[in-house]
Design brief:
The chain is of the alpha/beta class. The protein is 29% helix and 16% strand. The longest helix has 26 residues, at 13-38. Belongs to the methyltransferase superfamily.
């Protein structure tokens, strides 16, 4: 029996509706399939899904999944950008997080790191209008305003010669609170009392440094000053210092030892740094003493030195220095200069601060998350000849094997072999790999696994400075680096570093996998993805990364390099070197946030 063909108007409305729904769903699914597979909409939707996965910190499992995909090379898009308000983000110095902590001994201004699972896995973008930084040495005097458009210091401190805005630049006249007419006349005054020329003094620490004009001015004297200040109300002072090409580091003297070895600095300087040296039974003065090389100089300018209404604080400061047998060299206006004794401190049995020598169980160079001790480091607790005047002058000390190298078995032989090895390697980097080392494009350099500082020593004739990082779980060789006349810090690379984004032109690491593994074990404490995202945070756009490791490790690194938007090539090692190493050379691409962010 044939079907009765009814006019459309006579069909059952219920049947008509059901057929339409089924047909619409079918064609809708087909259309969606084609849209997702063959059009940019699919990419866009997938990206938004990845973004949700990426920025989610509520479910660590999602984060772990993303890390695994990136490590295996199965994440076929670059890691997403962080939000626009994160351009200056430092994970361990986050004011929103740290403001909840105690104010006692400035605990809340020290570094406090979130756990990896608490951090979004994303790439820090540059600010709008960011430009490739002004090159050294011009950068010492001017930088692009758009790279860090923070006017607060210029507005508050411009009358003291710190910095001021001029057209598209910030310019730096070289002044400071205690030397508004510029650091040069102030340094000239200090030179009347301290041997600032001739190579006797090489390593310096400038505490509470502002925009580091003092440290910048010392460079012309052959003195390498590491300047530090906390992240505080003077927004971005360390960021300005690093943009200028001056060695600097975000740091606070609070409840812990500063991350340097004992007897590291030939010269320590405080210009209105406002550190309460005599508080807490002189704990902060004792920490400065731990860091100052025997025979070295301590300079304090500003309060409380002959300062109105601070007679007691000034008297206490002098009393502590006397208790430690410091020689008073001069009091010139509001500046005091002391010289630390060469030999063992002459701590009397009785002094008003109750100062005592540390016992033998205390390693004075152990300084990673190490609580401050209220005891004085004796010179005999560190083996070797390192007092100012006995240690060779600069530049001879750079290549002379220091006795502190004996922290390692056969340390002197290891030191000499390491020096030769890095001379060969750096020549290969420049001549065969054609890296930009030695050119004006590279000023701020980091060696993430420095050992004896051989890489930095091989760059000594280049217009660079190197932050030598000694991993905190490896042998404590940082004292050797300072004895050579170089600078650096301890750090654990399973945590973010205490610097602003975009502060290094060139990052070098030999043995990257060793930074994340337990010593003597194949087990990882953290992962390469987080480490390379952190390296990307520190690196300037168009900056260079050089990573040396086994072929297997380099293959992993290459997969992750794609995900962090680096352009990478894999190269053979120099022919004179033994082992199986390969060398990955990568450039950070200069990408910007899209309007969708």
């Amino acid at each position: 029996m044939g079907h009765l063909n009814l006019p459309a108007s006579k069909r059952n409305p219920r049947q008509w509706k059901l057929l339409d729904i089924i047909t619409a769903i079918f064609f809708g699914l087909v259309l969606l399939f084609f849209l997702l597979v063959f059009t940019p909409l699919g990419d866009s939707m997938a990206a938004s899904g990845r973004q949700a996965l990426l920025l989610s910190t509520s479910d660590p499992r999602q984060r772990h999944r993303l890390v695994s995909l990136v490590e295996l090379g199965h994440h076929h898009k670059p890691i997403e950008a962080c939000p626009a308000n994160s351009v200056d983000h430092m994970p361990c110095e986050d004011p929103r997080r740290n403001s909840q902590l105690s104010r006692e001994m400035n605990l809340y201004r020290e570094r406090h790191c979130p756990l990896p699972d608490e951090m979004p896995l994303c790439l820090i973008p540059p600010p709008p209008g960011y430009k490739i930084p002004v090159q050294w040495p011009e950068s010492l005097h001017k930088i692009w305003h758009s790279n860090m458009p923070h006017n607060k210091i210029a507005d508050r401190k411009g009358h003291q010669g710190w910095m001021k805005k001029q057209g598209p630049h910030f310019i730096f006249p070289g002044g400071g609170t205690m030397f508004p007419d510029g650091a040069a006349p102030y340094i000239e005054k200090l030179g009347q009392y301290i041997p600032l020329t001739g190579g006797t003094l090489r390593t310096a620490l400038d505490m509470g440094c502002g925009v580091a004009s003092f440290g910048g001015s010392l460079l012309s004297e052959g003195i390498l000053a590491l300047s530090f200040a906390p992240r505080d109300s003077h927004k971005a002072q360390i960021q300005f210092a690093l943009e200028r090409g001056i060695p600097a580091f975000v740091l606070m003297l609070g409840t812990r030892r500063l991350p340097f070895p004992a007897f590291a600095f030939d010269f320590i300087h405080c210009s209105r740094c406002l550190i309460p040296f005599t508080a807490y039974n002189a704990t902060y003065f004792i920490e400065v003493d731990r860091l100052l090389r025997p025979g070295g100089y301590l300079v304090i300018s500003g309060p409380p030195v002959q300062w109105p209404k601070q007679d007691k604080e000034w008297a206490d400061l002098q009393a502590v220095a006397r208790a430690l047998c410091y020689e008073l060299i001069a009091v010139d206006g509001n500046t005091v200069i002391w010289k630390k004794p060469d030999g063992d401190l002459c701590l009397p049995n009785q002094n008003e601060f109750g100062l005592e020598s540390c016992d033998e169980s205390n390693d004075p160079s152990n300084a990673w998350y190490f609580k401050l001790r209220r005891c004085v480091t004796s010179t005999s607790s560190v083996n070797g000849e390192y007092p100012v005047g006995i240690i060779p002058k600069w530049p001879d000390r750079l290549t002379r094997a220091p006795s502190r190298a004996l922290v390692m078995k056969n340390g002197i032989d290891l030191f000499r072999a390491d020096t030769r090895r890095w001379t060969r390697r750096v020549a290969y980097y420049k001549n065969t790999l054609n890296l930009k080392l030695g050119s004006p494009a590279v000023r701020n350099v980091m060696d993430m696994n420095a050992f004896f500082g051989g890489f930095a020593a091989a760059l000594v004739s280049d217009p660079v400075w190197v932050m030598n990082v000694v991993p905190a779980r490896k042998p404590l060789t940082l004292g050797v680096i300072y004895d050579r006349g170089l600078i650096g810090v301890y750090h654990d690379w399973c945590e973010p570093f205490s610097t602003y984004p975009r502060t290094y032109d060139f990052i070098h690491v030999a043995g990257i996998e060793s930074l994340i593994k337990l010593p003597g074990s194949s087990k990882s404490r953290c992962n390469l993805v987080d480490l390379m995202v952190e390296m990307d945070r520190m690196l300037r756009p168009e900056g260079t990364v050089v990573i040396r490791d086994s072929p297997e490790a380099i293959d992993k690194v290459a997969r992750i390099a794609y995900a962090v938007r680096w352009k990478a090539t894999i190269n053979y090692k120099e022919p004179e070197s033994h082992g199986r190493e390969k060398i990955l050379v990568a450039t950070k691409t200069f990408w910007k946030l899209t309007s969708s962010h």
